[in-house]
Write a structure and sequence with these properties.
The chain has 502 residues and is α+β, with helices and mostly antiparallel strands. It is built from 14 helices and 21 strands. 46% of the residues are buried. Bound molecules: flavin-adenine dinucleotide (FAD). The site of flavin-adenine dinucleotide (FAD) has 38 residues, from α1, β2, β13 and α8. Pfam families: Trp_halogenase.
Length: 502
């Protein structure tokens, strides 16, 4: 076997969550090799500083770096998250829960969801979320002791974290630098290219010139390397998802400390509430075609429960993804790669998933076209999957109380890929999980159900299952989950006892 020459110097431009996640991942891989990693960031420019809700794969990312989860939680003032509560999305006054993990268990080889669908024809049907461990724990405001839960149904419960983004950056920076990553605080003044189109070097405002054979663009929305230099192009998806701005404000901790994110539909978008150990993150994501900045700010401030700890901040964004997230010898990550509104907390996940994919398709110092094309195809697929899932949260609304919601209900374009999913699900509750897709059936079931999308019937094979036995089995399962959840410590007590903030 004749391995091609390996990369000698990888330069990461930007030191936000994306930059330091890349530095931590690559620093960990190359700590004992002669491949050098350098990260350049400008403390004058700073980071975006939001990005507080994560999803379960984030836990695996932290642990795969060899980081102790409790230590991470203590240093990042994190809290736990079982899922997202969606308030007022279908109609005002209605809410539903999107939990992590899986729902129920199959019965006699029949898919759980189909069993549940059949049980809905009984006299006392149970709600879908009665079969979610995570939803039950969220409802009780509880977290669980993993060791004590080892032989119970709670053992497989899946959680994620709410984190302080700036503390995550600090933590990962310390970790990456301990692995040998070189750090330079300076502004990139110019990006120099070879005649081939590859990036050659970054010229810094302190006079240094940093050469490299591969570059990772983590410079945020501006995409200094991938767009301003390499003109990758952008798939702009505003026609599907009209929100294009956020206003954010942190407030003091509010009680109770919920182990879930709250996403509340508002007149022209939605607000988030994310509880951390030391503060609450709040923001209003809105469409400026339907609402001006002052209206958005008034809405946000009237929705928060505690005093603001800082000045509100407006952040404009453009929904979509770069046409070529990996172009020439440059890979874009984080906001430089693309952005989808944070309704399902997917941005940090997309950074880690892109990094994992990049490591699997790691380039050498030769022709990498085949890797690059496959990488770009997969990233585009990830963004389309999330885009479709986000659209589902809007397009099935029954709200018609504002122009924004009337537009969502009547005029929102639905991509063919989502129309197919909707039609397939409506037929007999069908869902076909894709290979390496992020949102597994539980997620789709939760949002379909929460948004009132009903299948016409259940799969005919369920006629073989005795209805009485089926209902009894579902009832017992749900009762077991509820009883266990009620025995667990409160989220706040758990954090105080096992992971007090440093
Ligand atoms: P940034 O944080 O913007 O970092 C850019 C870096 O590049 C900085 O270090 C900057 O100094 C540097 N830089 C730029 N130009 C130069 C230059 N010329 N020279 C030197 N350095 C330079 N994600 C989630 O997973 N969950 C959430 O709940 C969530 N909520 C969000 C809410 C909002 C409103 C927004 C906008 C985003 C949210 N995100 C969320 C996304 C998340 O914030 C980002 O994905 C994540 O922080 C990564 O940001 P970044 O590192 O790509 O960019």
């Amino acid at each position: 076997m004749n391995n091609s020459a390996s990369l000698k110097h990888i330069v990461i431009a930007g030191g936000g969550t994306a930059g330091w996640m890349a530095a931590a991942t690559l620093g960990n891989i190359f700590s004992a090799s002669d491949t050098q990693i350098t990260l350049i960031e400008s403390s004058q420019i700073g980071t975006i500083g939001v990005g507080e809700a994560t999803i379960p794969p984030f836990i695996a990312v932290i642990e795969s770096l060899g980081i102790d989860l409790v230590d991470f939680i203590q240093h990042t003032q994190s809290s736990f998250k079982w899922g997202i509560q969606f308030v007022d999305w279908h109609t005002r006054g209605q809410s539903y829960f999107h939990p992590f993990g899986t729902l129920g268990q199959s019965i006699d080889g029949h898919d759980f969801f189909q069993c549940w669908l059949k049980s809905q024809t009984s006299d006392h049907p149970l709600p879908l979320m009665a079969h979610s461990k995570e939803a039950a724990l969220a409802e009780h405001g509880a977290f669980f002791k993993p060791h004590e839960a080892a032989n119970t149904p709670l053992a497989s419960a899946q959680f994620a974290l709410h984190v302080d983004a700036s503390l995550v950056v600090k933590y990962l920076k310390r970790f990456a630098m301990a692995k040998g990553v070189r750090h330079i605080d300076a502004k990139i003044a110019q990006v120099k290219t070879h005649p081939s189109g590859d990036i050659a070097a970054l010229q810094l405002d302190n006079g240094q010139q940093i050469e490299g054979d591969f570059f990772i663009d983590c410079t945020g929305f501006g995409g200094l390397l991938i767009e301003q230099t390499l003109a990758s192009g952008y798939h702009d998806w505003r026609m599907f998802l009209p929100c294009n701005k956020a206003v954010t404000v942190p407030t003091a901790v509010s009680q109770p400390l919920n182990p879930f994110t709250i996403a509340t539909a508002r007149d022209a978008g939605w607000t988030w509430k994310i509880p951390l150990q030391h503060r609450t993150g709040n923001g209003y994501v809105f469409a400026d075609d339907f609402c001006d900045d002052q209206q958005a700010l008034d809405c946000l401030l009237s929705s928060v429960e505690e005093a603001p700890l800082d000045e509100p901040r407006f952040i404009p964004f453009r929904t979509g993804v770069r046409k070529q997230p990996w172009k020439a010898n440059c890979l874009a990550l984080g906001l430089a790669q693309g952005f989808l509104e944070p309704l399902e907390s997917t941005a940090i996940h997309l950074v880690s998933k892109s990094l994992a994919l990049f490591v699997r398709m790691f380039p050498s110092a030769g022709n990498n076209d085949i890797l690059r094309n496959e990488f770009n195809r997969r990233v585009q697929q990830d963004y389309e999957e999330i885009r479709d899932f986000l659209i589902l949260h809007y397009c099935e609304t029954q709200r018609d109380d504002t122009d924004f919601w009337r537009w969502c209900q009547h005029d929102m374009p639905i991509p063919d890929s989502l129309q197919h999913k909707l039609a397939f699900f409506r037929h007999a509750g069908g869902l076909i999980p894709g290979v390496e897709t992020l949102f597994q059936p539980t997620s789709w079931y939760a949002v379909f159900n929460g948004m009132g999308v009903q299948p016409q019937g259940y799969n005919p094979t369920l006629d073989a299952l005795d209805a009485e036995r089926l209902n009894l089995s579902l009832q017992r399962g749900a009762q077991g989950i509820a009883a266990l959840a009620a025995q667990q410590p409160s989220h706040a007590d758990f954090l105080r006892t096992y992971c007090p903030a440093h």
